[in-house]
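User: Second chain of the day. Same drill as before.
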Amino acid sequence: MIANWKMHKTSREAVDFIARIAPAAAAARCLVIIAPAFPSLAAVAAAVQGSAETSAHGLAVAGQNLHWEAEGAFTGEVSGPMLADAGCGYVIIGHSERRQYFGETDETVHRKVRAALAAKLTPIVCVGETQAQRDENETEIVLRYQFERAFWGMEEADFRSCVLAYEPVWAIGTGKVATPDIAEGTQRFLRHCARNVFGSEASESLTILYGGSVTPANVRGLLEQPDVDGALVGSASLDPTSFAAMIRAC
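Assistant: Same format as last time:
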């Protein structure tokens, strides 16, 4: 269960949030990952490590993005080694908002996946189609291409270190959400893509998350689907009561 806070919360607000979800995280039978804004990473990592309740259970920290180079003259960017040093174990790559607003491409996603693995971070790789592409029955074509480009030329051992997140672009921040049947069918297709490239064992062990207007009201129905292994949560993760409810549902 991943909280993607996007451009929200100061460090103080983030630390307060961790304290408020600590009981739910401590009782969780799932991994809980917090993805704060870059300035709050170290504070969140320290709060997680300093909580006796959460540090002994499944609570981790993720970056929201990274550059494909380990260092260099890239003003405003953050590298994989920097994220790891700040306490991250995970990083989100290729989120639809990065693709839409900041020129992220399938090629840069691939390069960032490689960079994350080199920094010993687990990549959470986002794929998803637009409303127009779904209306034109191009969903599977788009997702297959995004999947194959993201993991192009990768060894099975490296692929097993990755997480996949299906986030239909038409559901991001719109209030629309894929029905459980749509989410299951699409994520089953993505598992099929993994099987074709990396084999049955890698496909079955792959964690595939759903992201797109996930709320406490709909998360249970989504998580009941056999190919939905968790959720990448946006706006509904900003409120600790809401997010704690989703952790309990998971």
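The chain is about 45% helix and 15% strand.

User: Great, on to the next one.
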